[in-house]
């Protein structure tokens, strides 16, 4: 299993996943008063198939839950992850659940 570390980079408005110190992927966001809007997730080509996207999704959603924030999954990857992992569905802000088919 690949060791993936994930850290928030507030200056860039994104969470960054690294493998052996190299940027492997990221999840961009906009922070709102009571929610976090995930706008784009990308895994760099050299790191595809190593679980980077799923690790990012789990991390950002777990952190949103810990921080007591709803999520707005504009990013299709994050929205799809929530659809597949229904235990995160409660995080989606109620007024946008239908729009993202959550």
Class inferred from helices and paired strands:
alpha+beta
**Largest beta-sheet details:** 5 strands, mixed
CATH superfamily: Gcn5-related N-acetyltransferase (GNAT)
Sheet with most strands: strand arrangement:
1-2-3-4-5
- Binned strand content: 25-35%
Which structural traits does this protein have?
single chain; 102 residues; alpha+beta; Aminopeptidase; 5-stranded mixed sheet; globular
Description:
- The chain has 102 residues and is α+β, with helices and mostly antiparallel strands.
- The protein has a 5-stranded mixed beta sheet.
- It has helices at 52-67, 76-84, and strands at 4-9, 14-19, 22-31, 35-43, 70-73.
- The protein has one domain (4-96): Gcn5-related N-acetyltransferase (GNAT) (Aminopeptidase, 3-Layer(aba) Sandwich).
Quick structural gist:
This protein is of the alpha+beta class. It has one domain (4-96): Gcn5-related N-acetyltransferase (GNAT) (Aminopeptidase, 3-Layer(aba) Sandwich).
SSE order and pairing:
Blueprint: E1 4-9, E2 14-19, E3 22-31, E4 35-43, H1 52-67, E5 70-73, H2 76-84
Parallel strand pairs: 4-5
Antiparallel strand pairs: 1-2, 2-3, 3-4
